[in-house]
Amino acid sequence: MSRRVRAAAAASLIVGLALAGCGVRPADADSTLERIAEGGVLRVGVTENPPWTELGDQPSGTEIALVEEYAAGHGADVRWRAGTEEVLIDALHAGELDIVVGGLTDTTPWVDKAAVTDVYREVTSASGETEKHVMLTRAGENGFLMDLEVFLREEGRR
Question: Is 1 in a helix, a strand, or coil?
């Protein structure tokens, strides 16, 4: 993990813990959490990377199930948008998407264009390397990111 990613993760953790102690949730620049929590639409970019994400008539896979469960918990519908990582990151940055999934790991090159969740699952690849999986959200949507991370931590314990 790069020094910049570690520093950002540590800062995010410190701020999150400080705010959690105050009972205050960080705000979203564009009210993402408020929009989806009112039974809105969660806009998700997905790139194919089985078994995490598989495209077809309807996306499926491990991360698809997680996103659907997260949205259901908020009474939100999911709108899927398939594409390459680069296209989806541009759409995320432009505010057209809320999350990007696709078996992404903490070594993602998109840290300058998106917010990266905490690692929610670690798996050992066929080559014996540990993969630390993350999802990407729009930068500045801090309340949404924090809410998603709480959900992912709870799911990671199951």
Answer: coil
Q: Cβ distance 33 to 105 under 8 Å?
A: no
> Domain ranges in the chain?
27-156
pTM listed for this prediction? 0.80
Per-residue pLDDT, 47: 97
- The H or E element containing residue 80 is strand 77-82
Over range 133-139, report the average pLDDT. 95
- Dihedral sign computed on CA atoms, order 122, 104, 27, 158: negative
CATH fold label, 27-156: D-Maltodextrin-Binding Protein; domain 2 (3.40.190)
What does DSSP assign to residue 35? H
Q: Using CA atoms, how far apart are residues 16 and 117, in angstroms rounded to an integer?
A: 13
Q: How far apart (Å, rounded) are the C-alpha atoms in residues 68 and 78?
A: 7
**H-run or E-run covering 43:** strand 41-46
Helices (H), the chain: 3-22, 32-37, 62-73, 85-93, 142-156
